[in-house]
Amino acid sequence: MSTAPFSDPAAVASYTQDTPAKVPGLADLHRMTTVLLGERAESTAHILVVGAGGGLELQAMAEARPGWRFTGVDPSPAMLDIARRTTAAHAARIALLEGTVDDAPAGPFGGATCLLVLHFLDRGERLRSLREIRRRLTPGAALVTAHHTAPDGEAERWLTRSAAFARRVGTDPSRDAASAKAMAERLPLLSPAEEEALLREAGFCAPALFYAAFSFRGWVAYAG
Length: 224
Ligand SMILES: C[S@@+](CC[C@H](N)C(=O)[O-])C[C@H]1O[C@@H](n2cnc3c(N)ncnc32)[C@H](O)[C@@H]1O
Known about the structure:
224 residues; alpha/beta; Rossmann fold; seven-stranded mixed β-sheet
């Protein structure tokens, strides 16, 4: 799956305005993520943020937990530039690195996030990335993931609802259905059961669903 759109500065310029309008409850997803990480992370923890482009989750967590510091990795320089601007007020506690989890330091980290990223990666690359995240976590530390899924194998129905939500004004069912079809063809989506199996295969324990919003699902799981 190509993530080329994220490398085009013009295409990502409005990311921080557009994304909260497209992902139901995004601000609360960030608040829940902070709570879930905080159950296992110390007040001075170092948190790994995989796919940190845009900086929205970094900004939310840095504001809510003044003692945490962060390393964010993202392969897109354009998205990292936006993250740098979004998180400028907390720059002293945030290191931003160009690359994937493979380029992140060894840690150990007291928690990790991977938000709105894994739906771009095919199963093999997801498994590899999840294993690399797990290797960098303190045993028992939490990982929070959230992204598009294919609930009960009904990807298009739920993606159509997500497209309708993102539209905000008016209705256009045929355009929403077409955009859902394109996404279903483009994104290597997994069912919720496959998602949980993959987390376990990567060495995480007790994956628990905590967020469900049309085609989006979020899990917390713990480094084994
Ligand atoms: C939809 S954005 C999500 C950004 C941010 N996590 C958020 O929730 O707003 C997807 C991001 O994943 C990044 N990305 C793509 N492939 C990646 C990979 N293999 N590892 C880490 N990040 C990746 C893209 O560059 C892009 O910045």
